[in-house]
Structures are given as C-alpha cells and as structure tokens.
Specification:
The protein has about 325 residues and is of the alpha/beta class. The protein has one domain: P-loop containing nucleotide triphosphate hydrolases (Rossmann fold, 3-Layer(aba) Sandwich), CATH 3.40.50.300. It contains nine helices and twelve strands. An eight-stranded mixed β-sheet has the order 6-7-8-3-9-10-12-11, with helices on both faces. A four-stranded antiparallel β-sheet has the order 2-1-4-5, with helices on one face. Helix 3 packs parallel to helix 5, helix 4 crosses helix 5 and helix 5 packs parallel to helix 6. The longest helix has 18 residues. The radius of gyration is 21 Å and the shape is globular. The chain binds adenosine-5'-triphosphate (ATP) and magnesium ion (MG). The site of adenosine-5'-triphosphate has 12 residues, from strand 2 and helix 1.
Length: about 325
C-alpha cells in the first residue's frame, strides 16, 4: 500500500536569507497511509500548522518534497493545486471564520456538494440533511445562520462539509481546541465514529497529547520544528523514549491530578527555542542531556516499526549507542 501523504525531509524557513530567519519546520519526514489517523503534537510555535499549511499549499516549501496520492505536489502550478484541494480538506480551530455570516448553514453544505460535483442542486438539500444527521445535528438547524449555532454545532457542520466532499485526506488543525471540554469529547467521539464508518484518513494536529491520543492511532511528536519521535498511540508511555514525549505525557496525567495545580507546557520563546545550531533540539530543557547531545544532532532512527526516535539517550533504552 502506498502512503496517501508523504513528507520527505521537508523544511520551512521563514525569512530565509534575512536577519530574522525562523526555521519553523526542519527536515520533517512523515507518512500517512490511507485509513490512518496520524497525530502531530507539540507545544505552541513548534511548527505544526506550518506543516499543514505546506501540505495544502498555503505556504511554500523551502526544501524537501511532499507527495500526495502518488504525485509530487511540491512545486505544482495553480491549476493542479486546485485539483489537489478537493482531495484534501482542512478543518481549523475557529468554525465561525469558515462561514459567510449571512449564509444559512444548510446552504453552506449544499454549495460544497454541488461545487465539487457530488450531486445535483435539486438533490443537494436532501443530502445536506443526511449529513446533518450523520454529525448528530437536527436538519432543522439548516435554516439558521452561523451565529445562531454554538461553536460545537458549527464545527460539526464544518466537519460534515469536509467529509461530504469525499476527500482522500482530512487535516484537522486544532479542530477541537476552542471547544469546552465536554463538547470537545463529543466531537472527538464523532470524529472517531465517522472515521470507522467511512474509512477516512486524518492528519490531526494538536497541542494536547491527551486529545491527540484519543483520536489517533499513530503520533508524531514535534519540538522546535523537528519530529523527535513517532510511535503507535497504544505504545505511549511504556514503549516511547524521547524525554520530551515523557514530559508531554507528564502533563497529560496532571490534568487528572487535582493536587497537582499545574504542569503547564511552556511556550517556545526564541531564546529557548531549541533552534540550536548544533546538537539536539531539546538539549536545553532535557534533564538527560550530555556533551554528545550538545554537539551531535541525533538522527531519526527506526527502532521497530513504526517507532522512530531522535535521541541519544532514549528512556525506552537500547536503541542508540
Ligand atoms: N508567516 C510567518 N512568518 C514568519 N514566521 C512565521 C510565520 N508563520 C509562522 N511563523 C513562525 O513559525 C513557527 C511555527 O509556527 P506554527 O504556526 O507552525 O506553530 P504551531 O505549532 O502551529 O503553534 P500553535 O500551537 O500556537 O498553533 C513560529 O515560531 C511562528 O512564529
Ligand atoms: Mg498552529
């Protein structure tokens, strides 16, 4: 089976050649197979959205290649880009930004179906109503305007539209992050159910490991523009080894721990950004860093498929020397 999406050593440097270079994404390689749900997790500023934006051509690529559906889409023109767009749908954090304020939400669904040639206009109303039900919304809501729905309801409509177009890949960038916890859980459940029923392929981006784990079968952990570990979701904790993964995991448990007030993830600042010229990206914050970590960059090494790790001293032991 061929991956539906493959990133090969992809980098993005904002302001390349200027005094203010930001190496937002560095040498990222990742595969998404059809039917997969892959998560990218990492703290604010680590480059997650930039990855998504390069895949969807909202940002150009500094180096590396992106392959989609068997085709190298790294440097395709405008017309082909449009063709790719219908096969990749994105869901962002803020559903209100997707709608025109005066368009009924039902019309929003119908337009998608007609525009992408899924059905004729007379048929679209009926199909739109079916999609509303699939995402557990009453078709009566179709006549409402966006501001007359809650954020959670509106995000369900956005998801319905994304799926109704029958894309080969759905990228969800912090798609549930703005929702309150109980609503977030319901929407995640919905996404899991739809994936199973319709054999969808997800690339799910988030900063919260607990959330990403609840949806994804495979997880890539990003730090300062690099993927530092990739693993099967079910191996998290007992068979993962990057100190940064461990740290993220610590903050997952703390959510459920009332006595522990907060282990919040810090936000990357430029001084402590991990944009190291030499050695490991995580060296400054890593409790296990040695001289080697400061001078030699750990390469991403396979240690049993699909587990890959870039660390000189992994906690799961034994892979590096
Ligand atoms: N257009 C731009 N020009 C310059 N720098 C940018 C641009 N877009 C993003 N960056 C920088 O690239 C880095 C990665 O940003 P990105 O939005 O990909 O992070 P993220 O992981 O999605 O963060 P968040 O969780 O906050 O959404 C950040 O340092 C950001 O400031
Ligand atoms: Mg982002």
């Amino acid at each position: 089976m061929e991956p539906i999406l493959e990133l090969k050593n992809v980098s993005k440097i904002f302001g390349a050649g200027t005094a203010h270079e930001v190496p937002a994404v560095r040498d990222v390689s990742l595969q998404v197979m059809p039917g997969d749900s892959v998560g990218i997790v990492g703290e604010s500023g680590c480059g997650k959205s930039t990855v998504a934006r390069m895949v969807t051509k909202l940002t150009d690529i500094t180096s590396g290649e992106i392959w989609f559906d068997g085709e190298n889409i790294t440097r395709i023109g405008e017309k082909e880009t449009r063709n790719v767009y219908r096969k990749i749908q994105m869901v962002f954090q803020d559903p209100y930004s997707v709608f025109s304020p005066r368009m009924q939400v039902g019309t929003f669904l119908e337009e998608g179906l007609v525009h992408f040639g899924i059905c004729s206009r007379p048929e679209a109303r009926k199909q739109a109503a079916e999609w509303m039900e699939r995402v557990e919304l009453s078709p009566e809501l179709m006549e409402r305007l966006p501001h007359q729905l809650s954020g959670g309801q509106l995000q369900r409509v956005v998801i319905a539209r994304a799926i109704s177009i029958r894309p080969k890949l759905i990228i969800l960038d912090e798609a549930t992050s703005a929702l309150d916890v109980s609503v977030q859980k319901q929407v995640l459940k919905l996404l899991v159910r739809l994936q199973k029923e319709l054999n969808l392929t997800y690339l799910f981006i988030g900063h919260d490991l607990a959330v990403v784990r609840s949806l994804c079968e495979r997880i890539a952990v990003m730090y300062a523009g690099q993927i530092v570990e990739v693993f099967d979701s079910e191996d998290l904790g007992h068979n993962t080894g990057h100190p940064y993964t461990q740290k993220l995991l610590g903050s997952v448990f703390s959510i459920h721990d009332r006595n522990q007030k907060e282990i919040q993830l810090e936000t990357l600042s430029m001084e402590d950004s991990g944009y190291e010229k030499q050695g490991c990206v995580y060296q400054k914050r890593c409790p296990h860093a040695t001289e080697k970590c400061r001078t030699e960059q750990p390469v991403m090494e396979a240690c049993g498929t699909p587990h890959r790790i870039a660390c000189w001293h992994p906690l799961c032991g034994g892979h590096h020397h």
